[in-house]
Amino acid sequence: MAEILMPKATAVWLVDNTSLTFEQIADFCGLHPLEVKGIADGEVARDIRGADPIANGQLSREELDKAQKDSKYRMKAQKSRHAELLKPVKKAPRYTPVSRRQDRPDAIAWFLRNHPEVPDSQIARLLGTTKATIDQIRNRTHWNAANIKPVDPVSLGLATQMELDAVVQKAAEKKAKEDAKRGIVEPEGPTLAPASETGQVEDEEPADFDEEYAED
Known about the structure:
This is DUF1013 domain-containing protein. InterPro entries: TrcR. Pfam families: TrcR (PF06242). This protein is mostly helical. It has 10 helices and no strands. It has 2 domains: 7-86, no CATH class; 98-209, no CATH class. Helix content is 44%, strand content 0%. Helix 1 (7-17) packs antiparallel against helix 2 (22-29), helix 2 crosses helix 3 (33-40) and helix 7 (104-114) packs across helix 9.
């Protein structure tokens, strides 16, 4: 079955314009029936504009008519060249000038020390590095481990402050949601400091970096 482009937007359109059951819409869009019910109740996707799957070539009128006549029928999506063209294009890996590449290990160490909640994939994308290099620095098996010191990527010219703040904020929000699901409540008081406040190396180093990344 072809992957549905903009599944929630498609579900919004089907809820508003057809007599399909929540189960039929959920099956076609790859959503949970409760999500579709939430859309119908106005609790989910309130700000999302509906996307017509017939107009974008992902559903035929015949399939829709069959499904509306039989609540047990499950619609089959069709591949649409038009829909494929609308898919977001993945950004190319960030290019880092040769003169700056030697600074990336320091920036990686800074992330591992100050923001361990940021996933390796985000660090790799922001700094133009690889997960293998991040693992080497985390496990202290990097060839230059003895000389690596945590320095924020903005100071090194590897990222802008806005880019850094966006990555940190996204990771913090994801962690908060995961903690909430597990019933973990954050203690009252200061929480995650903004990236702009963690640019300087602090006097007290966490245990993971006491020896390798201590100040001279």
